[in-house]
Amino acid sequence: MDDFASRRTFRLPTLLRKLALGALTLLVAAGVAIERPLTAPLSPKVEIADLTWVEVRTAIEHGFTTVIVPSGGLEQNGPHMIIGKHDHIVQATARQIAERLGRTLIAPVVSYVPEGQYDPPTGHMRFPGTIGVPEDVFAGTLEGIARSLKAAGFKTICFIADHGGSGKPQAEVARRLNQEWSKERVRVVDVNAYYDADDAQRRWLASEGETASSIGQHAGIQDTSELMAVNPQGVDLSRYASLGLRTENSGVSGNPMRASAERGRALLALKTDAAVAQIERVLNEGSENAGH
Prior knowledge:
Blueprint: H1 2-35, H2 53-61, E1 66-71, H3 85-101, E2 104-106, H4 135-152, E3 156-161, H5 167-180, E4 187-190, H6 192-196, H7 198-207, H8 212-215, H9 221-230, H10 237-241, H11 261-291
Parallel strand pairs: 1-2, 1-3, 3-4
Helix pairs in contact: 3-9, 3-11, 4-5, 9-11
């Protein structure tokens, strides 16, 4: 009886120790599994929408702290060109700019931008298919995007608008956020040089023999040529050529029949060159300031 009791006394603590050690091992293993960070290789893709969140974090850790926020627009572009013209153009130019800058990602294109008043309709809102938002809604969207990107760890946020009506609210948001974040080394760049390249484009077309009348203001040589260069399926000049005499406003200013993909590539180069130069100036200024 005494011998049995002694064996039981010996075995119980041993069993408890083994159980406790096993439980501790499981807890440690579980803790390690929970705390170990997820990893992903650096992706060759630059569009944030095509990446996982882990890939975005990896990119930021590898110095991809510059991000482009392109905005396009959904508006009438005459009978010969699709409504998503701006979106296609700015998506293509954003890729070119990101590739030239290096270590730069691209946010999805913001399609909904100011296009005019609703009642009565003004501007492009007079034409079916145009979808616009008030300036304050567009500004709020840009601000929300910028705050999201800042929270993720991006340091240089570049707003690039392909639509003229987006310029004013874009500039105001950039100015306001730069004031707020001035001590945090996060910059918001209003890449106005991109749209301001319109003047250089007009001068180039004039050197090619075009006039102010043939160039026009909207859906003419510039817009049509640019879309032909990046998305030729979005242009059908036969629809414009077949109009003949008409009384209804077609939404076109200028002569799109003089557009070409070759001209489009030259025109787009002027926009991308100007944007890259402006962003590089900002990045270089930031590097110099960080060194002091």
